[in-house]
Amino acid sequence: MSRTNPERIQARSDNGLWLTSLQRRFAGVIRFWCYDLFSASFMGVALLLVCLVPVIVLVKPEALALTLGMMQLSVSAAVAWQLNRLAATEWSILIPEYRRNIFFQCGFMLLGSFIIGSLVCLLVGVEGAFTQLLLATGLGLLFVYLCQRQPSGYYLSILLYVPLHFVDAIAEYFSPVMMAALMIANLALVWAIWKRGRVRGWHADARTVYLNALVMGGIWFPSVKSYPLISKLEQQLHPVNFFIGPLLAQLIIAMPIITLIVAAFAQLMGVQTQVLFILVLSSCVACTMVHWSRIQCWRAVETLFMLPGFSGKQGLIDGFNRAQINLLILLTLSMAVTAALVALFNPAITFAIWSHFVLSTFFGCGFLLGAGSACKTALQLSTTMLIIIVHGAWVSASLPVFAEETDVGLWFAGDLVLVAISMLTICWGSKKLWQGDLV
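Below the sequence we write its predicted structure tokens.
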């Protein structure tokens, strides 16, 4: 009988230890990244974008760089949230290897998304796609580092995707030397994030951001005094804004202002960007936030029910549904006015495109408000992210057709059908709101 080589035994032992160590680093990865609603939302968007890459390559290859950039930023936002949650939990230092596992998994997610994006750029060969991927990676790493230094920087996640519309114009000026410098800068950011993560422990500001994000979904605006305009908006939106507070009125005012500023800046720089498309998606997110705050603050429903002004449970439901209709009208009018102002200095915004954006805002927001009314848990509501993505794909795919003004009749017919569906969804959701609940 031949003897077993001791070196082979040692090699097998080393491989076994390495695999065991790797398994320990991935311990809890499903629970951390798929059950946490914030990281699951961002990672879900990134995964969906990866699945859409073959379709985009076949249908619209010029949108590949934007898709990969959104994927990288989505993963970066999920990593920033995980690190912020790590700094917000006092008990994280008590669990052995918990912090080390989170950092390892964050690095794996960032590196994995970058490798996937790089392989897609290499296989497809779209000009400038890899440069834009590097820029998006640097932007995401910078956001993660900013959130480490100042946890309140996570509130800027609402604006994280906006710079992507300027990346293609910036990438045109990059030479091979500048690309090498960008790669070194990205590696420096990785080193800075790793170094800061090793010494950073619990942070009171991170806990504040964590608790606020659970209620407001990671969106925040500075507190303002009770200006007459905000007071009137809050009166029209009550009781929809009871759970989310003055943030909803501030969003309605801030979104068109930010859109006009970005549109004016893009026009001065000579950059083509779809700021109205971003406004459509932001309006949809605002509608989702209404029901997100309602579900998160479910104990406050009894307080709202006890307030004077509602004649029983049905009176409360009717008042909430009327306020949702007011919100839908306000968001649609906001889009109509903002798109008209943008069209004054951007001749590319034709009447057909203006009408399409207005109708898209109406059916997108209406569908989300109706579907959100039927949701009872945060997990159910998180599935509406898919609705936002499909809605965004519809608007994005139709814009080239409207720009050329060829065969727009079919798209307008689709808009009208979707408007009808959204109105039916609102009616259906109004009957499901608080059905079977205590109130």
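The mean pLDDT is 79.
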